[in-house]
């Protein structure tokens, strides 16, 4: 497989830095954000400057202008003091997006880059699994502050780990489906041989990430990942059916493939849950009570956002807002909360309606560009489907949790979106 220098630097370096950030408690401290962001921003700047294919598009310029505008507002109001880590994390996410996009503009880089990403998730899942099995009560030798008995990798929060490993499951499944696509046939024996020949890395990564996901016992994370997994497989099977001839031989093979895919998902889900799903099963039993508590929390934060509806209270202001709205009635629920557990509500509190709508608009524009790439690409459409389904999973889980607020995960998501944007833009000159 042909590798360009862009796959070694900057993509390989970016993967190493992101893995380091994930292992360093998600880089969720000001010093860690500054250190990791500096490396990532330098890498992104070097990528844009040195790559002949890298371009800065008008939407990118608008996004940069928005960040600069909000930064200027925070400087003028004095909110910048606590908000600098947030801006550093966002700038690093933008740099990662540009890095991955530049790599994926070259078609020959896409498959190996996805394989490297799959390997990175496998290494993270492998470390998290064995670390949890050996000593489930500590992280890096330090006692876990909460979520005892649940795998949280180095993020402290098991729900953040669920978002990470749910993403890893979908990355690996995309690789498995690519292995199926590469076999060029629907015959069961040839498919099995093709999976072992082309999909071993993806299969191992899928199993490790799936086990880690279930060990997090995150109810929403597990449910959303399973739903998105089914969507991805069904979407790809439908695409394969449209692209192949309607001969009896191909039709029979496709039926075997669909049945085999359904059996694989079902068997994998049952096996993984049987091995490691005790805690998750217990937590599903408490779903109704916890949902009511989450609804009360959302209502409280929604009301709090109305105090500063236009511009919010600034990055890193959640603790102060949380303390202000705490009362005798809700103290047991709000005490110790570090985020709103809803990405839109979090942005509404911190940056007001202007910031929240700017965030949603930026992400929606990226999703739309990737979606349009499905119509313009001849190659790598499966990877675009994978990116879109990952985006769906992260978006859904972000409605009930806060992983995208943690730099160590937000940056992985920016990398995946950057790959999707690069694949889509790289095919803009091709016909459907």
Automatic annotation (TrEMBL):
It is a multi-pass membrane protein. It comes from the Bacteria. Its main location: membrane. It is found in: Membrane. Keywords: Membrane, Transmembrane, Transmembrane helix. GO terms for cellular component: membrane. Coiled coil: none annotated. The keyword Membrane applies. Residues 205-359 form the O-antigen ligase-related domain. The chain crosses the membrane at residues 7-25, 31-50, 62-81, 87-106, 113-134, 154-177, 198-216, 222-240, 252-275, 352-370, 382-403, 409-427. The keyword Signal does not apply. This is O-antigen ligase-related domain-containing protein. It comes from Aquisalinus flavus. The lineage of its organism: Bacteria, Pseudomonadati, Pseudomonadota, Alphaproteobacteria, Parvularculales.
């Amino acid at each position: 497989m042909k590798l360009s220098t862009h796959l070694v630097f900057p993509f390989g370096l970016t993967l190493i830095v992101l893995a380091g950030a994930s292992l360093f408690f998600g880089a969720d401290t000001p010093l860690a954000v500054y250190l990791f962001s500096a490396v990532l921003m330098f890498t992104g700047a070097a990528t844009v400057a040195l790559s002949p294919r890298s371009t800065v598009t008008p939407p990118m310029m608008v996004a940069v202008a928005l960040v600069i505008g909000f930064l200027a507002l925070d400087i003028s109001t004095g909110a910048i003091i606590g908000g600098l880590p947030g801006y550093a994390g966002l700038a690093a996410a933008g740099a990662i997006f540009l890095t991955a996009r530049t790599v994926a503009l070259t078609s020959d880089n896409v498959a190996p880059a996805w394989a490297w990403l799959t390997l990175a998730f496998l290494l993270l899942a492998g470390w998290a699994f064995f670390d949890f099995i050996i000593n489930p009560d500590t992280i890096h030798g330090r006692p876990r502050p909460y979520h005892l008995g649940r795998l949280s990798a180095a993020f402290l929060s098991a729900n953040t780990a669920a978002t990470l490993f749910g993403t890893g499951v979908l990355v690996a499944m995309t690789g498995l489906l690519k292995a199926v696509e590469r076999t060029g046939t629907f015959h069961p024996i040839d498919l099995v041989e093709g999976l072992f020949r082309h999909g071993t890395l993806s299969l191992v990564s899928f199993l490790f990430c799936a086990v880690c996901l279930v060990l997090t016992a995150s109810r929403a994370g597990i449910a959303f990942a399973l739903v998105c997994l089914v969507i991805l497989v069904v979407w790809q099977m439908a695409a394969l059916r449209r692209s192949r001839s309607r001969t009896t031989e191909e039709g029979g093979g496709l039926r075997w493939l669909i049945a085999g895919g359904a059996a694989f998902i079902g068997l994998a889900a049952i096996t993984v849950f049987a091995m490691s799903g005790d805690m998750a099963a217990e937590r599903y039993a408490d779903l109704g009570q916890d949902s009511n508590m989450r609804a009360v929390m959302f209502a409280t934060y929604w009301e709090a956002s109305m105090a500063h509806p236009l511009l919010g209270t600034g990055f890193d202001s959640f603790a102060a807002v949380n303390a202000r709205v705490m009362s005798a009635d809700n103290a047991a629920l709000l005490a110790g909360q570090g985020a709103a557990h809803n990405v839109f509500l979090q942005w509404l509190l911190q940056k007001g309606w202007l910031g929240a709508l700017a965030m949603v608009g930026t992400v929606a524009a990226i999703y739309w560009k990737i979606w349009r790439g499905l119509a313009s690409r001849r190659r790598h459409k499966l990877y675009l489907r994978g990116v879109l389904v990952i985006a769906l999973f992260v978006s859904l889980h972000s409605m009930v949790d806060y992983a995208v607020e943690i730099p160590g995960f937000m940056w992985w998501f920016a990398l995946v979106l950057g790959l999707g944007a690069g694949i889509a833009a790289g095919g803009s000159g091709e016909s459907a």
